[in-house]
Amino acid sequence: MWEFLPLSETFTYRFIARQSACRHIVLTHSRLNESAFPYSDVFVLSKRPSGFLRAFSRGIRALGIDHAYPPSLALADWIFLERGIQVLHAHFGWTAAPAAQLARRWGIPLVVTFHGTDVTSWPDKPEFQLQYPAVFATSSVVTAPSYFLQQRLVEIGCPAEKIVVVRCGIPVDEFSFDPETRRLRDSDSLRFLVVARLVEVKGVEYTLQAFDRINHLYPKTSLTIVGDGPEKAILEGLTRRLDLNGSVKFLGQVPNSVIRQHMQESDAFVLSSITTADGKPDSAPVVLMEAQACGLPVISTAYSAIPEIVLDGESGFLVPEKDVAALANKMIQLVEHPTQRLGMGDRGRAHIQTDFNIQHEGKKLDGIYQELVWKRQHRS
Question: From the CA atom positions of the chain, what is the Rg in Å?
Fold first, then answer.
């Protein structure tokens, strides 16, 4: 991994830190947010090497075995030998090229997980077009979090037989589900929630415009927006122009525990994702899984992998992107039909429990590792 770990990549941490039949060792170039993502077996390859590794690196170069043998590679080789690494797993396509080189160097299987932008950005990234063919050729297994991304991988040249869909599951039991709290609240004072990076692809401006319509009909409704990003000032300006300051709150970036608290206190979740001006869609937003695990009905966009996460008409509603009228109509429907709203919350919780549970998806990933190790050990 290039960085371990940006705050937005909780889904990666969950796979690594969960209870597993396999031991995970993290190789990274940068350690971030250590208090948020505690993990003991993390090795920073760009860190100043020990005297032993520097001497080892100089010795290899002096012997003529490898004239370009940096200390970072010496550290990686030492970890491989010391820890007995049997499978190398690269998260995100942009880390896969150096990982493929290490896998070939060590003679072990490579698993690559693509997450979204590392695939949808392919047409605009010459370096991806140059690197990915070797990554696809070297990898034993490629995983994708959705069938949507699986198809996109095939379109850019990944052999279909190598791809396995492994969802970015969540620990469902860690998300409290108390429908009785929502049954007691007056429908005309519904609390809508957005949790997102405030960037173009999340389409928060369309949620604000839709909320403006329902707030005129039901002035007690409220909208809470959790997250930060380059569009925050623009969105705050739009809120002022719509005269929604009394009903809309921007909370900025908060810890995951606070996000869960707001999910418990809200009645519905909205994420009106769009395709950006340069043609990139949102991928498989994990926050939609988390909201449904808390029993929130979800309103989102009918595109990309979102229809795999939100069951349209069952656990929420999906609308065309940038369609403010459709978005507002579905928000109004949740206000005016409490029985349907609560039923969707129940259905969403069951859907995530069955299809996006980290325990199930983690066992699937462990099975991939174990099969690759077995095949390597039994090669003739």
Answer: 23
Contacts of 143-146 with CB under 8 Å at 24 or more apart are 143/111, 143/112, 143/113, 143/114, 143/365, 143/368, 144/113, 144/114, 144/119, 145/113, 145/115, 145/116, 145/283, 145/284, 145/305, 146/283, 146/284, 146/304, 146/305, 146/308
pLDDT tens-digit profile, the chain (380 residues): 788 998 888 888 988 988 788 889 999 989 999 998 999 999 998 655 555 445 545 554 454 444 445 667 778 888 898 899 999 999 999 899 989 999 999 999 999 999 988 898 876 788 888 999 999 999 999 999 999 999 999 999 999 999 999 999 999 998 987 777 666 667 778 999 999 999 999 999 999 999 999 999 999 999 999 999 999 999 999 999 999 999 999 999 998 889 999 999 999 999 999 999 988 899 889 999 999 999 999 999 999 999 999 999 999 999 999 999 999 999 999 999 999 999 999 999 999 999 999 999 999 999 999 999 999 988 85
Record the tokens describing residue 317, joined without a space: 């509603």
Q: Give the Cα separation of 87 and 253 in Å (integer).
A: 35
Structure tokens at 116: 């979204």
Separation CA 85–CA 175 (nearest Å): 34
b/e per residue 16-51 (b: at least 16 CB within 10 A): bebeeeeeebbbbeebeeeeebeeeebbebeeebee
Rounded-to-integer distance, Cα 71 and Cα 267, Å:
53
Residue ranges and CATH numbers for the domains of the chain are 3-47+86-169+358-377 (3.40.50.2000), 172-355 (3.40.50.2000)
Q: Taking the CA of residue 3 as centre, how many other CA atoms within 13 Å lie in the half-sphere pointing to its CB?
A: 9
